[in-house]
Amino acid sequence: xxxxxxxxxxxWVKEMAELTKPEEIIWIDGSEEQLEAIKQDALTTKxxxxxxxxxxxxxxxxxxKPTDVARDEKRTxxxxxxxEDAGPTNNWVDPQEMYDKMGKLFDGSMKGxxxxxxxxxxxxxxxxxxxxxxxxxxxxxVVLSMAIMTRVGRDVIDALNAGADFTKCLHSKADIxxxxxxxxxxxxxxxxxxxxxxxxxxxxxxxxxxxxxxGSYLGKQEGWMAEHMLILKVEKEGEEPKYVCGAFPSxxxxxxxxxxxxxxxxxxxxxxVSTIGDDISWLRIGEDGRLYAVNPENGFFGxxxxxxxxSNPNAxxxxxxxxxxxxxxxxxxxxxxxxxxxxxxxxxxxxxxxGNPWNGPEADVKxxxxxxxxxxxxxxxxxxxxxxSTGEGVPISAIIFGGRRAKxxxxxxxxxxxxxxxxxxxxxxxxxxxxxxGQVGVVRHDPMAMLPFCGYNMAEYxxxxxxxxxxxxxxxxxxxxxxxxxxxxxxxxxxxxxxxxRAILWMLDRCDGxxxxxxxxxxxxxxKGDLDVTGLDLSDEVLEKLFAVNKADxxxxxxxxxxxxxxxxxxxxxxxxxxxxxxxxxxxx
Length: 589
Ligand code: OXD
Ligand code: MN
Hints:
The chain has three domains: 7-47 and 74-222, Phosphoenolpyruvate Carboxykinase, domain 1; 226-298 and 388-587, Phosphoenolpyruvate Carboxykinase, domain 3; 300-380, Phosphoenolpyruvate Carboxykinase, domain 2, CATH 2.170.8.10. The protein has 18 helices and 31 strands. Strands 1, 4, 5, 6, 7, 8, 9, 10 and 11 form a nine-stranded mixed sheet that branches. 30% of the residues lie in helices and 23% in strands. The mean pLDDT is 97. α2 (32-45) packs antiparallel against α5 (140-149) and α13 runs antiparallel to α14. The chain binds oxalic acid (OXD) and manganese (II) ion. Oxalic acid binds next to loops.
């Protein structure tokens, strides 16, 4: 029974049902009873398994096909009428060609299955930032995950009935045939089609597809920004809270940074950190000329391996209830989950992510897939900030760009101004991770950590950044960080995790104009003594190496940036000028 009186919605759902031919149509209103009944269906068919309900109440286990464990960038396409509107960094297909091709795959793909219609909102319904979508799917995993990751409920339906515009999202797992897997975006039609995958990043269409690819396109049209950024709140007792955004490529520690625990030394001084978002920011300019951010999501889709009570206790506690675990290992003794480095006690009576018997202490294969995930409600996070649930934007003091770089990139430096910061973001590179299919550990250019997520031509995206800067009277300061620099023995030199707060506090002091900085060819670096390293076992020599700007490394970097820039027909002159300046300064070293 439809609860929707919006004729556009009903017509579209009818059309999609005629195409996919499901046995039954179920409208999702987000009520607990409805989600519980659907969950029971998934348990009956064994699509999902229930975990130990005493230790992990409300938690479920889910496994994807071994060929379907990460985002598939080769099969992700942007379908604009003109190829140049998708730009040189996106896969492009003509929209009609893609509709025809995928239409054939969707034809009858839900025969004998239930079709779920999920009205959802990214952002709090009724706020300036909210955007509504409707995802049609034949996967219960998608229904239950969307109920965690987005806002699903009566108020979304009311907004649609009041005439709200919406993004049309169609998903079918079909036969999960990787040869016919496509994740297609039609920004000019506000439409997303995804078929033959059941991995979160390809099928939870509110996240990467709507909130970033379609979102970035809408942002360009409407004068706001959709970014691959966490949002963090830093408070010191008796002082105004400060807010920071950070863009890092997938699986480079955004969730850890977003939930960081301050070292004792800083706690004693009254510092407190809380989380607003761990993956996506939507940013708008406020009347006061500052940049305001919200997290449009409602949950965390985090990488499990490496998460533990030391590296990220807040994430561990977040996943203790109402969470879906995907492709992790199972402990068959107590029906709980395990992943690499969760603790030092892998289960002997276990099952790996492929479902094979797995004796953890003796196994020579991993128990969990490196890109195994938890899907957890943000409300579970012990340090979630109040501002998360109001959905009102928070004023951003600093934007951090960062990558995973063994060499070249110093621990932290500041851009000289907004445009220089845009240059630094555009020139970002990082080692690839297991979050996307393909080789791991290869350095690739990933501007603003948006390479896989920008829904239009990146040259125009850079221009949009420059234009946004012009509209702000008080823009955030921009910084670059690298927590991952290694020494001659390939050992990390910086402790990372909670100690990253030290770099953030230096940034905030810079934002407040409390301290000076040192000019380097890359930007503005901390003056000796300004980065508080009290209590760290870090020699002056190592500290120097963390900040070193090596001429040969940077000659190669400049060449790499030039090569990346050469992909574009034209780029904003602010960026090509900044590259020329950098080149000259490196040559002068
Ligand atoms: C993610 C990703 O899942 O970036 O957040 O892949
Ligand atoms: Mn991400």
